[in-house]
Amino acid sequence: MSWQEKLDHYMTGLEKRNPGEPEFRQAVYEVAASIFPFIEDKPIYHEAQIMERMAEPDRIITFRVCWEDDQGNIRVNRGWRVQNNNAIGPYKGGLRFHPTVTQSILKFLAFEQTFKNSLTGLPMGGGKGGSNFNPKGKSDNEVMRFCQSFMTELDHYIGADMDVPAGDIGVGAREIGYLFGQHKRLTKEFTGVLTGKGMEFGGSLIRVEATGYGAVYMMASMLECNGESLEGKTVCISGSGNVATYATEKINQLGGKVVTLSDSSGFIHDPEGIDAEKLAFVVDLKTVKRGRISAYADEYTSASFYAGERPWSIACDLAIPCATQNEINEKDAQNLLKNGCIGISEGSNMPTEQAAVDLFQQAKILFAPSKAANAGGVAVSGLEMSQNSARIAWKEDELQLMLKDIMQKIHDQCAEYGRESDTHVNYLKGANIGGFIKVADAMLAFGVL
Ligand code: NDP
Ligand code: 2IT
Fold first, then answer.
1. Is the CB of 378 inside a 6 Å radius of any atom of ligand 2?
2. For residue 109, which atom of ligand 2 is closest to its CA?
3. Which run of H or E residues covers position 152?
4. Which CATH architecture has domain 59-189?
5. How do residues 103-147 score in pLDDT, each as one tens digit?
């Protein structure tokens, strides 16, 4: 069988075993399309069924989460933890609280996380969890009661050497505080069981900045390889949460100009650029007031708000999606290319639909896939785990250097495995192969498990 036939056969089986899970299928296909040609002349991986095993989570835990709202009504949500693979370290990955969360989405995220965590070079396996709980419009007390109920069940399955969750969409400092507090209360132990913790209780400096900063470092490294820099570049960013705001901050620091941000209600375009003062307004708006991005256009007359739209029709040199999965479709990709976009660094997980990925690849623009581009967040989570285990706290400048170094090494791994000709690097292929090798070889070492 040719590698293409093996890939088709593999995908047919995967779809049969995972019906109705399009995001999971999409994530696995994106990896498998790189790995099957790579292992064509390496029969050991085929004989050991490594790709089949990687796409079958070690376990999926599903549970009911009951909580009482402020009016005394009983509410019921569903919670999950997908423990995908712990071949190279404890399961590690965020928790997402969003009404759109499904098992398919968490399986795709846990699968991706396995490769991402491997790329960081740190000893972390892949996992992801969350709930279809919608934190929007809930009071702090409601969020606290939800988090306590969620952790009461999740607590059976996590531990500093077993599975270490963190934040993701809808799970930030507030939620991690409530979750950690409940874990501590249930176990009577103070361990590094979560990352993204507050600085008062075992958190690490620069964890909050790390994902956005890392995505920009990845872009800067790609540009540098092509004799370019961020200086003077116009950048479109989507989202206005943790990743988007710190990506904006770093672009500003490195001399670029960010002209868009968004949320699920639409996007703002500010041709004058979102400087530090305007960014502080956004952070306050989204994290303290928990408001909508349209308020930016009410505050700053230089900006317009486009309800229900995404920012990809705005002309830019570079794009950094930082909201959610499948937020760049084929038409968006056509627009970006038509308007002269030369680079994409994926801050969000799997933001680009396959047809759009194909267009970017054909156009041979710089394209850093999420598992490489947004690995800075989990990398600093790994450093938080190390500090917790050693009961120490590293200084900010030390951590900044470590983050930069890890992102550069991820870039270089992608370049090593993704170089297709002297001039072009297929970062997607490079990230998939770079992430695969370590996990696959560890699995081989364990025998049949
Ligand atoms: P936040 O919850 O802080 O922010 C999410 C942002 O994306 C908000 O602006 C939100 O808008 C918007 N958004 C969420 N869902 C949708 C949707 N369905 N359609 C349009 N906009 C949406 O999350 P993060 O910034 O932490 O996460 C953003 C992305 O980055 C996610 O893909 C996450 O998986 C990924 N990521 C996060 C890491 C981290 O360390 N936090 C690490 C690596 C990746 P609204 O306010 O309207 O909900
Ligand atoms: O997608 C991701 O890498 C995250 N949400 C961060 C995971 C983590 O464990 O820090």
1. yes
2. 1
3. helix 140-154
4. 3-Layer(aba) Sandwich (3.40)
5. 999 999 999 999 999 999 999 999 999 999 999 999 999 999 999
With 0-12 CB in 10 A as exposed, 13-18 as middle and 19+ as buried, what is 1?
exposed
Output the pTM of the full model.
0.98
From 168, 265, 289, 378, mutation site for ligand 1 pocket: most ligand atoms within 8 A of C-beta = 168
The verdict on the CB of residue 335 being under 6 Å from ligand 2 is: no
Q: Ligand 1, atom 28: nearest CA belongs to which residue?
A: 323
Alpha carbon of 125 to those of 88, 273, 435, 443: distances in Å?
5, 39, 11, 12
CATH topology classification for 208-364:
Rossmann fold (3.40.50)
DSSP for 290-314, written as a single string: ---THHHHHH-TT-EEEET--GGGS
Instruction: Considering the chain, tell me which residue range(s) the CATH 3.40.50.10860 domain(s) occupy.
Output: 59-189
Convert the pLDDT of each residue in 229-287 to its tens digit. 999 999 999 999 999 999 999 999 999 999 999 999 999 999 999 999 999 999 999 99
